[in-house]
Amino acid sequence: MPLLTVEGLTKSFPRTGRGTVHAVNDVSLEIDRGETLALIGESGSGKSTIGRLILRLIEPDAGTIKIDGTDLLTLSNSELRAMRAKMQVVFQEPYESLNPKMRVGDIVAEPLEIHEPSLSRADLRDRVRATLEEVGLNADQAERLPRGLSGGQQQRVGIARALITRPALVVLDEPTSSLDLSVQAQILEILHDLQETHGLSYLYISHDLSTVSYLAHRVAVLYLGQIREQGPLEAVVQNPQDPYTQALLAAFLDSDVSVSPSRLRMLSGEIPDPTQLPEGCFLYGRCPLRMDKCRSDPSVLRVLGSKHYGRCIRAPLNDDDWNIVADSNRTVGDRPG
Ligand SMILES: Nc1ncnc2c1ncn2[C@@H]1O[C@H](COP(=O)(O)OP(=O)(O)O)[C@@H](O)[C@H]1O
Ligand SMILES: [Mg+2]
Fold it and tell me: Per residue in 110-154, pLDDT tens?
């Protein structure tokens, strides 16, 4: 049984006076023990909302979320509190996610105090110290305030705080995207080592394909709150079977990896407003490979290979298709490089 099983997850938000944002649309995914699933897509594609739904920080409109077979949505408040120790999160902006008035040691201790209130002061201190050391900080830094630390050290505090309850699943929501490249590499290495040591499962949310290939075992590509393609890292990166994935990769291969793809124009035109989802294939209006029936027929995920799924009805795509997508991607203006 996978550690995490998500089925049919759907979430919309009212937008005052301007309809409903369909942020997450019928998303299903699984994560095994010790496995990293990367969730990639442009800004606004619904990545963080999926993370928050899985952690049950917000409630879905539809769908099920199971950890170890237990349906999170049926838990009582006290059962959910206990379950939260097993699921933690690391956010994009380390400084903003840390209480600036608390000392590092107290920030890291806090989740453990909540989940294991019977722990003695001495045991608590030992666990904090051990966890700080595990993320490459030293015990003296427990006395510091977050502002006295570098960005990379602050993110190590965020990781220590997530780890101290010994979770099974950690949602990493763009954990390195606010850090310098050299610091990013260190943080990714720590996350990688911690996964090996503790058999952690990660939902790794990112728009940076270079970091995805370092950490991910499998990849899910999100567009307008819908998974376009999902599969093992090698399959999705080396043999992408959706025009959107191809455009995303072409933009990356073509540019400095530090450039955010959200600043690049994928395909032609703009992402449609998520208050008005397209009727057929969500990519129809922007797709260089589209056919007439893509306008009306809703796209469904099909099996394309071993554990590889995609929505494009033209899949399997060949090299000519890839060239069409890459070229259409290149001809759109406003792109650096
Ligand atoms: N609390 C909210 N209220 C209204 N709209 C929201 C809320 N949270 C997210 N959204 C909208 O949902 C969509 C997906 O957002 P998000 O999950 O943050 O995307 P990502 O993390 O991929 O950038 C966006 O259109 C965003 O504006
Ligand atoms: Mg986000």
Answer: 999 999 999 999 999 999 999 999 999 999 999 999 999 999 999
Q: How many helices (H) and strands (E) does the chain have?
A: 12, 12
Q: Is 74 left (phi over 0), alpha (psi -120 to 50) or beta?
A: alpha
pLDDT in tens, 148-200: 999 999 999 999 999 999 999 999 999 999 999 999 999 999 999 999 999 99
What does residue 54 show for φ and ψ, rounded to 5 degrees?
Answer: -65, -35
Rg (CA), the chain: 21
Domain ranges of the chain: 238-331
Whole-angstrom Cα distance, residue 188 to residue 196? 12
Nearest-atom number in ligand 1 for the CA of 49 is 17
Does residue 21's CB lie within 6 angstroms of at least one atom of ligand 1? yes
Among 49, 93, 208, the mutation site with the greatest number of ligand 1 atoms within 8 A of its Cβ is: 49
Task: Quote the ligand 1 centre to 23 CA distance (angstroms).
Answer: 6
Residue whose CA is at the smallest distance from ligand 1 atom 16: 46
The rounded distance, in Å, linking the Cα atoms of 59 and 63 is: 10
Ligand closest in space to the Cα of 222: 1
> Which residues are within 5 Å of ligand 2 (an ion), measured at CB?
47-48
CA of 21 to the centre of ligand 1 (A): 8
Q: How many CB atoms lie within 10 A of CB 221?
A: 24
Which residue has tokens 């307008």?
Answer: 224
Cβ(274) – ligand 1 distance below 6 Å: yes
| Mean pLDDT (10-residue bins), the chain, 337 residues | 97 90 98 98 94 96 96 93 94 93 97 95 97 96 96 97 97 94 95 98 91 95 97 93 88 56 57 90 92 95 97 92 76 41
